[in-house]
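Sequence design from tokenized structure. All designs in this work follow the same two-part layout: the structure record, then the generated sequence. An example of the structure record is given first.
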């Protein structure tokens, strides 16, 4: 039986070797989601735009919700939406991970296929929708404030460590989900809990100080706060924090990849 490399360099080699296939399959997945609908791919734009309108109406107009230090009620919707973009990017990919192998049995049994790229494909699809949502958010802020901060160009650097972390967790869950069908149910609960344990609906300062350590153990907390800094408030990101996050997420990505490579030999036996 073939032995699969688990070295960190193999992650890069696999991605570069299969980048065209990853792109084509990610594109097919995105297009397939809207196949048969009247407006097709335009829904990828209208969905986040309509959600932003709803958030604006409910939180800014009806509840008149305020964010500490922000005087414009309408800005609360943008702050909320920015947090939800990060959460949706992470949760969409992670929630799908336990069923990645189960929903692609033919790739395991009938063809020679680089199974490790299934997680890249899931991430690519999630990243596309997140990118569209960011464009909608920036359009909203441009309308609201009349301009954008130059720091928005730093956003890809801010979310890059999160993408690595997501890939590491995705590889682990894709493997575990193949051997145990219960993993998907557990992950759904955990991902939901992470939404309320992150600064999406309220700032980190509003969280009880005695439990704040749990708040910052949530990997979404730091990235959400840094994303708001560069997208909405024109502040430079915490480079030291991002550097430490990058080191940790790179290690987790390698651990996840190594786990997947070590356990993939048994996939065909349990499917």
């Amino acid at each position: 039986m073939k032995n699969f490399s688990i070295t960190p360099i193999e992650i890069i080699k696999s991605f570069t070797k299969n980048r065209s296939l990853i792109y084509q399959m990610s594109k097919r997945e995105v297009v397939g989601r809207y196949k048969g609908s009247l407006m097709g791919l335009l829904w990828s734009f209208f969905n986040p735009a309509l959600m932003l309108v709803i958030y604006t109406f409910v939180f800014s107009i009806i509840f008149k919700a305020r964010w500490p230090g922000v005087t414009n009620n309408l800005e609360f919707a943008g702050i909320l939406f920015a947090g939800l973009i990060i959460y949706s990017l992470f949760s969409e990919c992670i929630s799908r991970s336990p069923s990645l192998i189960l929903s692609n049995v033919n790739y395991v049994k009938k063809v020679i296929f680089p199974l490790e790229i299934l997680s890249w494909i899931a991430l690519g699809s999630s990243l596309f929708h997140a990118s569209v949502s960011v464009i909608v958010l920036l359009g909203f802020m441009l309308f609201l404030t009349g301009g954008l901060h130059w720091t928005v160009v730093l956003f890809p650097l801010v979310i890059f460590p999160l993408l690595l972390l997501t890939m590491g967790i995705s590889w682990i869950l894709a493997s575990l989900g193949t051997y145990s069908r219960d993993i998907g149910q557990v992950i759904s609960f955990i991902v939901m809990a992470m939404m309320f344990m992150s600064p999406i609906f309220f700032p980190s300062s509003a969280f009880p100080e005695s439990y704040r350590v749990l708040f910052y153990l949530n990997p979404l907390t730091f990235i959400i706060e840094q994303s708001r800094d560069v997208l909405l408030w024109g502040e430079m990101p915490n480079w030291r924090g991002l550097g430490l996050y990058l080191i940790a997420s790179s290690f987790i990505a390698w651990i996840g990849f190594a786990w997947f490579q070590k356990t993939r030999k048994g996939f065909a036996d349990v499917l």
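Residues 8-264 form one domain. We note this feature because it recurs in several other targets discussed in the main text.
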